[in-house]
Write a structure and sequence with these properties.
Elements: H1 21-35, H2 47-52, E1 59-65, H3 69-78, H4 80-84, E2 89-91, E3 113-116, E4 122-124, E5 151-153, H5 164-175, H6 189-192, H7 222-225, H8 235-242, H9 289-298, H10 303-320, H11 328-331, H12 334-349
Parallel strand pairs: 1-2, 1-3, 3-5
Antiparallel strand pairs: 4-5
C-alpha cells in the first residue's frame, strides 16, 4: 500500500492549503466574472459574503470519505465552537453511532461539505463553491459536484499533526466562506515576509526533501522553502496563496487579526524581523474573538441583521437577472445561472 504523502510530517512542518490547479483556475475565472458585474446598490462590498456564503440559519450536511468513526467524531467535536458562534447548523448525520458518508460515485449531493483524508495537503473550497458545478474539473477528485471532495484533511486517517483541531477549524471556516488572514490587505504580512534566500544560500535539503539551513547557517527564503517537502509549490502558487489580494473589492475584510485560526503559524525563517507584526498571537487552535465576530457578521441571529442579509441578496439578484438590467448573454452563462439560482434559494430560506 502506497504511503500517504504527509506520512513523514514532523511537528514543526508547515502544510499550507493546497487546492488543485484546475480548481484554482476555475475559481479565478469565476472571480474575474464577479469583478465585472454591474452591482446594484449595496451589493459591492458584500459580493464574496453573499455569493460564496451560505444562508443564515441554513443546515449544512457534512459527510466523510474514509476514516474511522473516532476520527469523524473528533472532527465533529472540533467544529462545535464554530456552530456556537453563528447561525449555521453543521449536520454530521450521526445515527446509530455512525456519521454520514459520501462516495465518489454519488450523482446527488450527500452533503454540502464532503470531507476526505486521502488527498495531499489540507484544503477546502470556499463557501458555496462546495456545491458549485462550475468549480473544478468534472472528472477530477476535487470540485463542486456530488462525487467530488470539497474539504480534505490529508493523512488524518494515518497520523494527525499536533495542531489537528486548529487545522479542522481553519478548513471549516474556509468552507463557511472565510479567506486567509495573512492575505488581509489591512495587515502587514506581505511586507513582513522573507520571500528570498539569505545572500549566498546554497540549496540544502534534509532526507525528506525539506529545504534547511546550509552549512554556513544561511536560510532558505519562502520561495525556496515552500518548493520543498511537504508543499512542493512553484512560485506562482506561492504568490497566489501568500501574497495579498491585489483586488480587494471582492472581500469583506475586517481588521488584521493576529489571533485568528485563519492566520498560519509560520516558522521564524518566514519573517524579516522578530517579533514580526505578522506573527500570530496564541497557538491558533481556538477561534479568536475576531473569528467569532466574522461568523456572526456572515451568519447573524438577530432578525434585523438577517433582514439586511436578505436585502443585500435581493440587490445582487437585481444586478444578475437579465430582465432586471444585465444583458441576456451574461444571464444565460453557467456562472450567472448558478449565482441566480443560489440567490433565489437563499432568499427562500430567508423568507424574502
Amino acid at each position: 500500500m502506497a504511503m500517504h504523502p504527509l506520512a513523514s510530517l514532523q511537528p514543526d512542518d508547515i502544510v499550507l492549503d493546497d487546492l488543485p490547479d484546475d480548481v484554482v483556475a476555475s475559481m479565478q475565472v469565476r472571480d474575474r466574472w464577479m469583478a465585472a458585474l454591474p452591482y446594484a446598490e449595496g451589493g459591492l462590498e458584500f459580493m464574496f459574503a453573499d455569493l460564496q456564503a451560505w444562508t443564515p440559519g441554513q443546515r449544512l450536511r457534512v459527510a466523510f470519505l474514509g476514516g474511522t468513526t473516532d476520527l469523524h467524531r473528533d472532527v465533529e467535536q472540533a467544529t462545535r465552537s464554530i456552530v456556537e458562534a453563528c447561525n449555521i447548523e453543521l449536520d454530521f448525520g450521526l445515527s446509530d453511532g455512525q456519521y454520514r458518508t459520501w462516495s465518489p460515485n454519488d450523482t446527488e449531493h450527500a452533503a454540502e461539505i464532503r470531507v476526505s483524508f486521502d488527498q495531499a495537503g489540507y484544503f477546502s473550497l470556499v463557501g458555496t463553491d462546495s456545491t458549485n458545478a462550475n468549480i473544478g474539473n468534472p472528472v477530477a477528485a476535487v470540485g463542486g459536484l456530488a462525487g467530488q471532495r470539497s474539504l480534505n484533511l490529508g493523512g488524518f486517517h494515518v497520523a494527525r499533526p499536533q495542531t489537528w483541531a486548529g487545522t479542522v477549524r481553519h478548513e471549516f471556516l474556509h468552507a463557511l466562506g472565510f479567506h486567509h488572514e495573512h492575505q488581509n490587505m489591512r495587515g502587514p504580512c506581505e511586507s513582513s515576509f522573507r520571500w528570498d534566500d539569505d545572500a549566498g544560500y546554497q540549496p540544502t535539503k534534509d532526507n525528506r526533501g525539506t529545504y534547511i539551513e546550509d552549512d554556513a547557517a544561511r536560510r532558505p527564503g519562502i520561495y525556496t522553502y515552500l518548493a520543498g517537502y511537504p508543499n512542493l509549490w512553484p512560485k506562482s502558487k506561492i504568490d497566489f496563496n501568500l501574497r495579498g489580494s491585489k483586488d480587494s473589492s471582492g472581500f469583506l475584510a475586517g481588521p488584521f487579526d493576529r489571533a485568528s485560526v485563519m492566520l498560519y503559524r509560520f516558522p521564524p525563517l518566514f519573517y524579516h524581523v522578530h517579533p514580526s507584526p505578522c506573527a500570530p498571537a496564541g497557538d491558533g487552535q481556538e477561534l479568536s474573538d475576531g473569528d467569532r465576530r466574522g461568523l456572526a457578521l456572515l451568519y447573524p441571529r438577530q432578525a434585523a441583521e438577517v433582514g439586511s442579509a436578505a436585502a443585500r441578496r435581493e440587490n445582487l439578484l437585481k444586478a444578475l437577472e437579465p430582465e432586471r438590467g444585465l444583458e441576456s448573454t451574461a444571464g444565460r452563462s453557467p456562472l450567472a445561472q448558478s449565482a441566480v439560482a443560489r440567490l433565489r434559494d437563499s432568499l427562500k430560506l430567508l423568507g424574502a
